[in-house]
Design goal:
Blueprint lengths: L12 E8 L6 H7 L1 H10 L3 E6 L5 E2 L22 E2 L2 E6 L7 E6 L1 H15 L4 E5 L1 H12 L4 H12 L28 E5 L21 E6 L7 H8 L6 E5 L9 H19 L4 H15 L9
Parallel strand pairs: 1-2, 1-7, 7-8, 8-9, 9-10
Antiparallel strand pairs: 3-4, 5-6
Helix pairs in contact: 2-7, 7-8
Length: about 300
C-alpha cells in the first residue's frame, strides 16, 4: 500500500483513483487522454490530494492483434506499443460439444497486474476504465466487494466447474478482515464504453449484482461496443447511473461530460463521509437541484 500522508492542520484528504486503459492502449497513453478529467477533478475537489494511477496491461500485443493495423512493411513507421488486460478467443466449449464459448485468455495475469498496483499504490477510493479497461474496472469493483469471494466458491461447488472458475488468488489478500490498511470496497466506479464478460464462466462477477456505485457512459455513435453490451452490464449493477453522450468510442472531454463524472465522484465521496448509501445521497442532490433550477444544472443525469 502507498505510505499514508502525515496528518497536519492543512493536510488534504488523499483521493486515489485506479485508471484502466482500453485494448491496444497503455497506462501512459491513457494518462494523456484523461488530462482534462484530472484537471476537472482537481479543480472541483480542492480539499483532496488527488492521485491517479495508470498501470499498463501485461499482455504485449502483436500488430496482427490491432484492429485496422496496416501490416504492409514500412521501415519509416514503428507501431506504438500496444497492450491489453486479456485476449478474447473463441474456444470449444467443454460442456457443450460442437459449440464454442468466449474465453478471456490471460485474464488472471491482467487481474494480477491490477492487484499488484492496488498493493503498491493503494488503497484506492475508486476506479475509472475505458472499453476493455471498463470491463476490467467492473470486475475489480466486484472482486473487492464483501461476500464476492464466497459467491465464486459456492458457484464452483454447485456447478462442478472451476470458476475462473475460482476467485482470483491475486485478490485474496484484500479480503483479510484483520488488516485495517487492506483495500476495501471501492466508493465508486466510472465505466466508459463498458461491457460484461460473457457467458457462465464469468457470471459470478455480476451475480449477485454489483453494489459499488457505478456511472456508465455510452456513446450514441460507438461502433466498437454495442449499446446492448453496455446495457447488459448496467443491468447487473445496483442503482446505476448512466450518461449518453453524442460521440463514438471515446472518452468525452467536453464540459458537460466532465461535470457528470466529477459530480458523481463528489456525490459518492459525500455519501461515504456521511455514512449514507449513494442512492440516499443521490435523492438529496436531486432535491437540491430542484431548488437550484433546471438552468443551473451542469450534470446531465
Amino acid at each position: 500500500m502507498a505510505p499514508p500522508m502525515k496528518p497536519t492542520s492543512t493536510s488534504k484528504k488523499p483521493l486515489r483513483i485506479l485508471m484502466l486503459h482500453g485494448y491496444t492502449r497503455s497506462g501512459p497513453l491513457f494518462r494523456s487522454k484523461t488530462r482534462a478529467l484530472e484537471k476537472a477533478l482537481t479543480k472541483a475537489l480542492p480539499t483532496y490530494d488527488i492521485h491517479l494511477s495508470y498501470p499498463t496491461g501485461p499482455i504485449r500485443l502483436d500488430p496482427a492483434d490491432i484492429p485496422g493495423y496496416d501490416t504492409t512493411p514500412n521501415d519509416a513507421e514503428e507501431p506504438e506499443p500496444a497492450f491489453a488486460w486479456w485476449r478474447r478467443k473463441d474456444l470449444p466449449s467443454p460442456n457443450y460439444p460442437g459449440e464454442s464459448e468466449i474465453v478471456y485468455t490471460g485474464l488472471q495475469d491482467g487481474l494480477s497486474q491490477i492487484a499488484q498496483t492496488i498493493s503498491d499504490e493503494g488503497p484506492f477510493d475508486g476506479v475509472i476504465g475505458f472499453s476493455q479497461g471498463a470491463c476490467a474496472a467492473a470486475m475489480v469493483a466486484s472482486l473487492l466487494e464483501p461476500g464476492r469471494r464466497k459467491s465464486f466458491v459456492s458457484a464452483a461447488v454447485s456447478q462442478d466447474i472451476e470458476p475462473m472458475e475460482l476467485f482470483p488468488s491475486s485478490f485474496h489478500a484484500f479480503h483479510n478482515d484483520n488488516n485495517e490498511d487492506s483495500q476495501g470496497q471501492l466508493k465508486f466506479a466510472i465505466i466508459y464504453s463498458g461491457f460484461m464478460a460473457p457467458g457462465p464462466r464469468y457470471s459470478r462477477f455480476y451475480d449477485p449484482p454489483l453494489k459499488t456505485p457505478t456511472l456508465h457512459f455510452l456513446g450514441t455513435l460507438d461502433a466498437v461496443v454495442e449499446e446492448a453490451r453496455s446495457r447488459a452490464l448496467i443491468e447487473r449493477c445496483e442503482g446505476p447511473k448512466e450518461v449518453v453522450q453524442p460521440g463514438g468510442h471515446s472518452l468525452p472531454s467536453q464540459r458537460p461530460w466532465l461535470d457528470a463524472a466529477v459530480g458523481f465522484v463528489r456525490e459518492c465521496l459525500e455519501a461515504d463521509s456521511e455514512g449514507k448509501s449513494s442512492g440516499e445521497r443521490s435523492e438529496e442532490r436531486k432535491e437540491e437541484r430542484k431548488e437550484e433550477g433546471v438552468e443551473d444544472m451542469n450534470v446531465p443525469f
